[in-house]
Amino acid sequence: MSSSVIPRRPRSKTAQMKLRVYNQTRGTVVAEAADRAGDSATRRTGLLNRTGLDAGEGLWIVPCEAVHCFFMKFTIDVLFLDRDRKVVKVRPSLMPWRISGSLRAHSVLELPEGQIAATGTMPGDQLEFEKVVGS
To answer: Mind listing the pLDDT tens digit for each residue in 3-14?
Structure first.
């Protein structure tokens, strides 16, 4: 009996793309290299396999109205965004084993703890996402 090798499906460009997130309202950089979780598998996994987020990192989950931190190993800051990428809710210091959501949200940006305060991001702020060159 011969066995055939099934080639691994290449990761989607969406999963590999890094994004720079800029707060147009405050003139601050929210994330230098955020990943995008846009398919079912990456949205489901989120940050569960990570032990932390370094400064400048983040995860943009699209679409998403709520997040949970069950089985997470670290605390995160969370921004809830509408379809136009305007901040509708901020949730600083969301600890493991907690849930947060917003029915008005279309996506969520997860950031290292303290990033919301460091950038002064507030509800109503307009965010801009751009692909990082070379990613």
So the answer is: 444 444 444 444
